[in-house]
Amino acid sequence: MNSDYFRFIDTQKLDKKAETEVFPFSTNLFWDSSINTIDLEKNQRYVIERVLTRGFTEDFYLLVKIYSSEQIKTALRKSKELDAKTVNFCSQYFNLPKSEMHVSSFYR
Fold first, then answer.
1. Which residues pair with residue 72 across a beta bridge?
2. Which domain holds residue 103?
């Protein structure tokens, strides 16, 4: 995990949140779903896509704490919901070629 991205947030507080809360992400990211029905494993790709495209730095920190790089990369390769900025960021952060991700036709 690249600590430079997270130097302005309270990572100790977020570490505790990741350990104790069933759903640690900002609930406003999931306005279209009941967070009580979102399973972090079963709905892994949905959660990863939503956090990467709309999340705050704190949500991103939690994402990389909860999911492995390989899990995130797999979700990125399968996703059809990414915008160009998210693809650019993820390509740099996860060292994943842009050609392995798809920009949604909605954003083109």
1. none
2. 36-108
The predicted model scores a pTM of 0.90
Q: What is the pLDDT of residue 5?
A: 79
Positive or negative, the CA dihedral 41, 13, 96, 90 is positive
Total Cβ atoms within 10 A of residue 75: 20
Length of the chain: 108
Domain total of the chain: 1
Cβ–Cβ under 8 Å, residues 54 and 29: yes
Q: Retrieve residue 67's tokens.
A: 């999911």
| Cα angle for residues 2, 103, 28 (degrees, 5° grid) | 65
